[in-house]
Specification:
Two copies of one chain form a homodimer. With about 290 residues, chain A is of the alpha+beta class. Chain A is built from nine helices and nine strands. Chain A has a single domain, classed as oxygen-dependent coproporphyrinogen oxidase. The first copy, chain A, has helices spanning about 5-20, 65-75, 130-145, 150-160, 190-215, 220-240, 240-250, 255, 280-285, and strands at about 30-35, 40-45, 50-65, 80-90, 100-110, 115-120, 160-165, 170, 175-180. In chain A, the strands form two sheets. Chain A has a seven-stranded antiparallel beta sheet. In chain A, strands 7-8 form a two-stranded antiparallel ribbon. The first copy, chain A, starts with a helix and ends in a 9-residue tail after the last helix. The relative contact order of chain A is 0.14.
Chain lengths: ~290, ~290
């Protein structure tokens, strides 16, 4: 543990407190775990009312990065330290969006280090107002640190959160960045400051949307559609998400990695949406390059 | 189309007829499709009573095998032809098992060819009698062709239908074989004969189990467990199954590939089973190397 992982641990606790407060004070289940090879983490899981299943995971792990894993990261093997917070929330109401956030730090014993992270929003039904609110908030966080961040990281998110086999984005995107180093400074605090700002923006970006939508009326068709969209979320995470694949293939902690899976999902052969329906509106906006602001 | 793909097409129709007869004569939905690059297929999908969602897919495709795909198969690039039948049935009753079968033929314009295939059974609740019935039937089919087939292909299935990140097999296994060529003969009819026998055994291996189990009483806990086991099925297919990954990464027909996904599945953080429960019995038998006969 160092000051970065200590910060991430407190970020986890703070976010869980705010989410619990927002969801009828239902407490998170806390599950601390150790990694046999070094380090460990704390999984915090909410089975709430507004949030049907939510995971807010902290980890700080260390050990030897073997040749295969090093090759996957395109770096030299050696001792590593990695820490971060990962969040996926699957709301109960089909009109509330799924949200994901990750902030992370990685270092090698040879002095190499970087930060990475991202936030993206996956509505079952796209509401442009929510997308505008979300992206405007992200841009504000980014602009305070570097005016190039939002456009760069927004495009990166469009490219990253994309399902080639469906030719659709996962949702309305957000920001994504990796191997972030503060090139203009000699210390890493500038990058860390940005990552902190991203992490601390999470609740103010999501909780207002949740509170606006959790009591939205819905019918069986809306619920069915939610399950189908959750199926797409599963497809992205298991087929395309680099972090999930890397974790599962390198003997990561399966339950922590797969806490991102939805509580319930469905698949139907060749599901079709009606012309002019809200479902069709959503599908037609799962595209790269939409400027929501 | 050649005599092999013609055979596979008729096998598909025959199996669908038998499954429909077994499931209150509910008809399959028939969806013929063409592949822009050459060839096509017919997807037959059942939304039945005993079978909640079943796909029996035929395809015969041809075209250029690009460098990347050829490298994945460890062969030289060139023109290819591939045909086969793939089946996944997700039954309604948690006490009925999921079944999968695939029989396939592949050839290159340089004269290289092979057959492949397999059948495996994935019970939500393992019933040793069903596993014995299933494996005994498979052994009988194999032994008529080559006494080495069953032990070899049974072990291959144990290794193939395995989830490393869960340290469990997908189910009670079956047989799996790939790149099967009739080494002792100059024609390919010996291999084809075996593949035909596998394909034609499908209904007699599965329908009796379905008819024995479809009216088994079940409660909410059984249904919940079924959804969790289906989640594992999704994990195997999307993370580990070579055919699914290859298909999704090489611009295959997504709806045909993902017809294997269950109609409904669920994930729960760190689900635990009770000591001495049928769920625990099942988990304790999801191991390689069990000799069911």
């Amino acid at each position: 543990m160092n000051h970065i992982s200590n910060y991430f641990k407190s970020l986890q606790e703070d976010i869980c407190q705010q989410l619990s407060d927002a969801d009828d004070c239902i407490p998170f289940i806390v599950d601390a775990w150790k990694r046999p090879e070094g380090g460990g983490g704390t999984s915090m899981v909410l089975n709430g009312k507004k949030i049907e299943k939510g995971g807010v995971m902290f980890s700080a792990v260390e050990g030897v990065l073997n040749e295969k894993a090093a090759k996957g990261l395109n770096i030299q093997a050696g001792d590593f330290f990695a820490t971060g917070v990962s969040i996926v929330l699957h709301p109960t109401n089909p009109f509330s969006p799924i949200i994901h956030m990750n902030v992370r730090y990685f270092e090698m014993d040879n002095g190499l280090w970087w930060f990475g992270g991202g936030i993206d929003l996956t509505p079952h039904y796209i509401d442009p107002d929510d997308a505008i609110f979300f992206h405007t908030g992200l841009k504000k966080v980014c602009d305070l640190h570097d005016p190039s961040f939002y456009p760069t990281f927004k495009t990166w998110a469009d490219d990253y959160f994309f399902l080639p086999h469906r030719k659709e984005t996962r949702g309305v995107g957000g920001i994504f960045f990796d191997r972030l180093v503060a090139a203009k400074r000699e210390d890493k605090e500038a990058s860390f400051d940005f990552v902190k700002a991203v992490g601390e923006s999470f609740c103010s970006l999501y909780i207002p949307i949740l509170q606006r939508t959790f009591h939205h009326p819905f019918n069986d068709l809306n619920k069915k559609w939610q399950y189908i969209r959750r199926g797409r979320y599963v497809e992205f995470n298991l087929v395309w998400d680099k972090g999930t694949k890397f974790g599962l293939e390198t003997n990561g902690r399966t339950e922590s990695i797969l806490v991102s899976m939805p509580p319930m999902a469905s698949w139907e052969y060749d599901h079709q949406v009606e012309n002019g329906s809200p479902e069709e509106f959503t599908l037609s906006h799962l595209k790269k390059g939409i400027n929501w602001i």
